[in-house]
Amino acid sequence: MSDNTMTRAERMELTKIVRQRAKVAKDDVTAREAQVLADAEAALSARFKEQDEAWRDITSEVRRYMAEVQEKIDARCAELGIPVNFRPGYATGWVSRGENADPIRRAELRKAVQAQAAASGRKARLEIDRQAVNIQEQIMSGALVSAGAREFLASLPTPEQLMPALELPAITGRTNPF
Q1: How many other CB atoms sit within 10 Å of the CB of residue 166?
Q2: Are 117 and 35 in contact (CB under 8 A)?
Q3: Of 33, 39, 75, 157, which alpha carbon lies 20 to 30 A from 116's?
């Protein structure tokens, strides 16, 4: 974008629009975070009915198999002389939920989803801010006529320069972390 021909008023208006768009985009990120959390809650609370089409065939197969198992148990009990009323049995039951049936596990999963949604939201907002600043810089840099002003923009340190990677020995004070 060549902004040498832009007036000051045009640059100000464009910058204002960029800031407004960034605000809307960040609001969209907040809405997306809420939708991700709502979708996760729906998944955590899902229950599956044995009669649902997805499970109908396999559950009827399990019932047939368990009937055969019970017949074998009954036959063995008859051999051992165990009266019908005292015979053991083997039963299965449909569990409508997986590991999310446990409230403790649901809480763990919920916390993990919340943390991931928050981290993704922060990353998205940062990228929106980064792009907004880059666009504003492109708009406004045409108004910078002196070499010193342009050098000033180029001299801003990067996050990597300000915050180098952490190294384990520096944190623990030991060369062997174990």
Answers
A1: 7
A2: no
A3: 157
